[in-house]
Write a structure and sequence with these properties.
Length: about 120
């Protein structure tokens, strides 16, 4: 798999239209954010991108500040956030994901059937 091009990564958090119908989404996780806050914010960004740009490819970038620990350099919660939540749960609703741990393309067509809400506490 190839990583999404770094030059397409937005310079500011939020949702940004790109070339050829691609929407670039940047989330910045602060040291004060916990797993639930980060997960709910990521979900909200993807929902908003889908609502504003239906049918367009979505590429999700995340920068994580703080949260360092023994799990590949991250606290266990933020290792899980990258691996299980972003890649595992949100991955099918994105064309590509770029996290500090890895970057990858979705080998399947991006899905647009996001649930209306999630309950992460």
């Amino acid at each position: 798999m190839h990583a999404p091009p770094e030059y397409d990564k937005p310079s500011t958090p939020g949702i940004h239209s790109g070339f050829e119908g691609v929407v670039h989404i940047l989330q910045v996780v602060s040291p004060d954010d916990d797993f639930a806050t980060a997960a709910n914010a990521a979900f909200a960004l993807v929902r908003e991108a889908q609502a504003k740009h239906p049918g367009q490819s979505r590429v999700f970038y995340v920068d994580i500040h703080g949260h360092t620990g023994p799990s590949s350099g991250y606290e266990p919660d933020f290792f899980e956030f990258q691996q299980e939540f972003l890649q595992g749960f949100l991955g099918p609703f994105l064309t590509a994901i770029a996290t500090p741990l890895q970057s990858l393309y979705n080998p399947n067509p991006q899905r647009d059937d996001l649930p209306d809400l999630i309950d992460i506490q």
